[in-house]
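Sat 14:20. Reprocessing the chain from the morning session after the first attempt stalled halfway. Input below, unchanged.
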Amino acid sequence: MKKILITGGSGSVGLSFVENNYYKYQIHSYSRNEKSQVALKRMFPEVNIILGSVEDRFSLQNAIKKINPDIIIHAAALKHVDSAEKQPIEMVKSNIMGSKNIIELSIENRVPFTIGISTDKACNPNNLYGYSKKIMESMFLEANNSKTLFCCSRFGNVAGSNGSVIPFWLNQNKQGKALSLTDTRMKRLMIGKNEVSKIIEKCISECEKNNGGF
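Finished this time. Tokens:
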């Protein structure tokens, strides 16, 4: 059974993948969110949880060396647009320096391939979060080599995820309040939770083809 390390594994992306691939892989979730990690473990007892941040190179290196993963899914990031605008230093540490740590340690430990989770906001970005993910994508593509494959996948807003507008709207509706809108011209690209897993699975399949199935 192949081993997968998911950074930010207890978030919406990791949870979607775990739900659909629980019995297919040996899954390790690496995240600094203790509450979410414990909740993930209770739902899926066979998942190994590791507390740590991608910003902490020592902790990340220790986890990768112990697990010796066949695949890394890099989903850890500061994802909220407002937070990135207000605290760009924290965003850079997580989204850019954390991604740099993933790249360097994937190469150093000869991980067969690493998948970076990006966003539609990286396409012609007009906010710091989008720029950070665009940079992450470029870093992954630059690092790609015959021994350690790197690829990226872009998602829209995951419906019902943490910070998603849908639970916010549903709560407003229950309270009898008018739905809050940023702008009436605003459009959101939404994808379902199962679609998230399918996109990652497709990335894995494509990497296996290019790498001769390990």
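The longest helix spans residues 88-108.
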